[in-house]
Every structure is written in structure tokens, then in C-alpha cells.
Amino acid sequence: MTDVKKPEGCVAAAAGPVSPKPAAASSTSIDPAREETHMHVTVGKPAPDFEAAAFYQGGFKNIRLSDYLGKWVFLCFYPGDFTFV
Amino acid sequence: MSAVAGKAEEFKKLDVQVLSCSTDSRFVHKIWQEQELSKMVDGGVPFPMLSDAGGKIGTVYGVYDEAGGVNVRGRFIIDPDGIIQAIEILTPPVGRKVAESIRQLQAFQHVRATKGAEVCPAGWEPGKPTLKVHPDLAGRVWEIWKPDE
Q1: Is A33 on the interface with B (CB under 8 A)?
Q2: N or C: which end of chain A has fewer CB within 10 A?
Q3: If you classify domain B2-92 with CATH, what class do you get?
């Protein structure tokens, strides 16, 4: 094994929203993926964890929200790069 | 986002990790940084720019607009325990006021530093009086704090 970095592909697989628990083998019929998209965010409740591909310090890396536990986080969504506002 | 980047030093002073997130790919983030942001803000955006392709993360956070296929302006203040302390969501045509976010961060940090013993009244800014939570305070807030001060 060498330390040669893998070349960047066109697509970076990132987990996206991450369930707090791995899909537990339970008797419920609720599809965990479906349940996830219906998760609600509320003040006073845990921020749903996720993993996303990111551009940072000139390079690409995947970032997880839970990497920053122990720090205050300011998470900012916006409609798109190169937009006017 | 450039407005947030412009206040990067203030976020850093407060030891706050900024994460920006849109449905653009990381490649678009790179070119935006190089072509535009670095010209608006010295050194460009210093924090990770996340790609939420397909809006899956935005959906969970309640900010994904399916019709437009983009995330609207949603801002979440998350404390060191991973708990959401504040949410602000705007439709796309109006931008945020970053100074207000910083004020809220300072207030939440103050409350946390006092383990909740002090709370911050409306319009509180660092240096202004806080309220000490105590049953005796009931009915006497007016003695300490007035609106528009």
C-alpha cells in the first residue's frame, strides 16, 4: 500500500442524512429511509446528523456534522452558488 | 454566503464552526470560490462548503424547495451538544443579516456559560444586563429591563 491519493472522481458518495440508529431489525413496517425524510427539526432537539461532500481549503473531502460535536456550529443553507442575494 | 464569509473572523473569535450548504456540487463550489467569492472577501470562504445533491439533507432540515430543486435560506445554530438552539428560514429573495446571527450566538453562549442561570432579554448584546433566573424576579423584570433600551 502506498499513500498515493486516489484521483478525484466525478461523483463523491456521501451518506447524506444519517439516522441516529442503524436500521434496526425490528418488527415495524416503517421504512427507515422514508421515516428519515419526514424527520422534523425543532429547537431544543438534536440536529439530524449527515455526511456531505465538501469543498474545503482548496480540496475535496466528506464532512459529517457530528465531526463538530463539542463546538458551536452555524449551519447555513442557501439556494445556489452564483446567485445574486 | 459572501456576507457570512465577510464575518468569518467574528465567527472564529466566538469559536463557531460555519458550514454552508447548497445543492451545488463541490466542483461548482470550487469555481465559485475561485471566480467570485475570493474577489468579494479577502481569501475567499474559509469554511467547508457542503454539497447537498438532491436536497436530501435540506429535506430533513425542512428547507428543501421541491419546486425549485434548491434549499431555501435556512440557518441553524447548533450547540456543542448537537442541539439546535435557533432556526431562521427565509425565502430566496431576501438575504440574512449576519450581525443578528452573531448576536444570537453570543447570547446563547452567554446562557450556556452561566449554565442557564442567566437569560438574555430581547435585544440583548454583550455588556448589557442579563436576567438572573429566580422566583423573586417574577413581576419585577421592569425594574431591570425596559423595551428599546
Answers
A1: no
A2: N
A3: alpha beta
